Amino acid sequence: MDSTTGHSGLTPGDLLRLRRFTTPTVYNGWEQVSRTDRRTVVNRQDVRDFMPQAGPMVGYAVTLEVEPSNPAHLRDAPDAPRRYREYVESLPGPKIVVLKDADSPNVIGTYFGEVNASLHRALGCVGIITDGGVRDVGEMAAIGFKALALRLCVGHAFAWPVRWGGEVEVFGLKIRSGDLVHADQHGFMVIPEEDQKAVFDATLFMDGNECTSVIEASQVLVGRSMSETRAQMVDAERRFGAAALERFGRKGEWT
């Protein structure tokens, strides 16, 4: 792997193209080319996007665990922030911090506000997903650092890096460092490595397939009766399924 490609050979341009689609649209394309159980790649619990106006983000996971309620971590591992930052720097980007808060859902403090968001942005991170809290969301938005979190938080308490680089579970989904994550206001998904090269073309095709069949047929058009709309929707669902079946061997969600 060189500096122009990610974990599975995707270029920065590939990831930028993928970022132009919403996460549900990427999911629709992904399920056409994947053999992975479609129930196992998305968050299972509610998550809030505090910068929906920023659109989607896509990047490789950097996992981190914190326990803001426990002051012992500061005493026992005073150099943890330095070592954690070295780890973040060592990974290819773009990166998304996936932070597990051991106190969640009883959030008492956060490791991420303006300063850590700015630092992580400089280290190649584009945002964070955490089952804990975040603060300074206005400042985060201003520097282009997106945040999906359980809630907002006022203080930092004793937030400190505890562990990093391992598997974490946030919002019901297990994520490992290096996993490719796509996220927006709807939630987030992990794109399995074996599907990453095919997912953009599949997403582009399925988005166009919807636009020229079921979305077109369901639009309110002057001069078309309700019964005509129902009839055209049946035909559109048939055409949608036929196009998907011809391309991927699967009919898709509307058939």
Q: Summary?
A:
This protein has helices at 12-19, 23-33, 72-76, 80-90, 114-122, 137-142, 196-211, 214-218, 226-248, and strands at 48-49, 57-66, 95-101, 125-134, 146-152, 161-164, 168-170, 173-175, 180-184, 187-191. The chain is an alpha/beta fold and 255 residues long.
Number of strands: 10
Percent range of helical residues: 25-40%
The CA-CA distance between the termini, in Å, is: 40 Å
What is the tally of helical segments?
Answer: 9
CATH architecture label of the largest domain: 3-Layer(bba) Sandwich
Using the alpha-carbon principal axes, give the shape. Answer: elongated
Q: And the CATH topology of the largest domain?
A: Glucose Oxidase, domain 1
Count of individual domains: 2
Rg, Cα atoms, Å: 21 Å
Structural class: alpha/beta
Query: Low-confidence segments, ≥5 residues, pLDDT <50?
Result: 1-6
What does the oligomeric state look like here? single chain
Give the CATH H-level superfamily of the largest domain.
Ribonuclease E inhibitor RraA/RraA-like
The CATH class assignment of the largest domain is: Alpha Beta
The main β sheet shows up as: 8 strands, mixed
Question: What percentage of amino acids are in beta strands?
Answer: 15-25%
Average pLDDT works out at 92
- SSE ordering: HHEEHHEHEHEEEEEEHHH
Structure characterization notes:
The chain is elongated and about 70 Å long. 37% of the residues lie in helices and 22% in strands. It is built from 9 helices and 10 strands. Strands 1, 2, 3, 4, 5, 6, 9 and 10 form an 8-stranded mixed β-sheet that branches. The protein has a two-stranded antiparallel sheet with strand order 7-8. The protein has 255 residues and is α/β, with parallel strands linked by helices. Helix 2 crosses helix 7 (196-211). It has 2 domains: 12-192, Glucose Oxidase, domain 1, CATH 3.50.30; 199-248.
